[in-house]
Design brief:
The chain is α+β, with helices and mostly antiparallel strands. It is rod-shaped.
Length: 84
């Protein structure tokens, strides 16, 4: 894991603790501490999307609404234009 963090942060000293905590020490002396839960691991599945809890309800509602508008238009319930 330390090799991957070093690749992403060149010129940075990377130390990984027992709990998976990565400590990055930059050339200017500043330090970043990254918890193991925020690091990308090699075990991540590449064929799955992240589970964000979002649903497609709004997409379903817009499809239903557009279908209803189309049906109403076919039956002539839409706005009629005057012909002169």
């Amino acid at each position: 894991m330390a090799e991957n963090v070093e690749k992403s942060n060149p010129e940075t000293k990377v130390t990984v603790g027992n709990e998976g905590i990565a400590i990055l020490t930059y050339p200017d002396g500043s330090i970043n501490i990254i918890p193991g839960s925020q690091l990308v691991t090699a075990n991540a599945k590449t064929d799955e999307l992240p589970q964000t809890g979002e649903t497609y309800d709004s997409q379903k509602l817009s499809v239903i609404g557009m279908s209803l508008m189309g049906i109403l238009g076919l039956f002539g319930l839409g706005k009629r234009r005057k012909t002169s």
